[in-house]
Amino acid sequence: MIGEEQKAFYKNWNTLAAAAQAGDKRAYSTLIEQLIPFARSVLAGKLAELDWIDDVVQDALISAHKALPTYQVGRSFKAWFTAILYYRKTDYLRKVYARKNHQTSSFDELIEKNMDPDVTIPTHIAEYDHVEKLLEQIPQKQRDLFILARIEGYTAKEVANMKNMSESAVKVSVHRTSKKLKELLS
Questions:
Q1: Per residue of the chain (186 residues), what is the pLDDT tens digit?
Q2: Which CATH number fits the domain 2-99, given the four candidates 1.10.1740.10, 3.30.1460.30, 3.40.50.10190, 3.40.140.20?
């Protein structure tokens, strides 16, 4: 019986999607409300981070909204939306892995050159001293966040957890500190 109820539930999406195409705002709202938990449950075991799930769900809903006029009434809306969901998940993971590969490539280059990334290059000591003096001009809280994120290599999320701040506040602070240091260096 549960299988029949589920089939009826998903078949209702076909009706709601057709009505939403015709401009029924209530049907559109109901459809979106039902798609959100469905999308989250589909992605739950497929993505490593909970934040990623919300990002992909949002991207999928935006894509479905834009593509709704292309939905063919009479076909399975569930299959149509699930395809969009999987495409958005794939796109999102490509971006994540591209960023990770980009971040690690510079470290890989250091290893290939047999350099220890924690060792200061003797010819650059004066430059490092200059940067350290400039960092002293930055307020302590901003300086600490910058050092953790940019020098010690913690992610914004890790720094946010350490400092009991929001991730976006950490990103903004680190960005402003970087900007200020660039101004001081020029």
A1: 456 776 677 788 999 999 999 999 999 999 999 999 999 999 988 887 888 999 999 999 999 999 999 999 988 999 999 999 999 999 998 888 877 655 544 545 544 554 444 445 555 555 656 777 778 888 989 888 888 888 777 888 888 988 899 999 999 998 998 888 888 777
A2: 1.10.1740.10
Q: Where in the chain is the domain with CATH 1.10.10.10?
A: 122-185
Using a cut of 0.70, tell me whether the model's pTM lies above it. Answer: no
- Give the separation between CA 148 and CA 174, rounded to whole angstroms: 9
Compute the Cα dihedral for 126, 131, 134, 140 and give only its sign.
Answer: negative
d(CA 180, CA 178): 5
As a CATH number, domain 122-185 is: 1.10.10.10
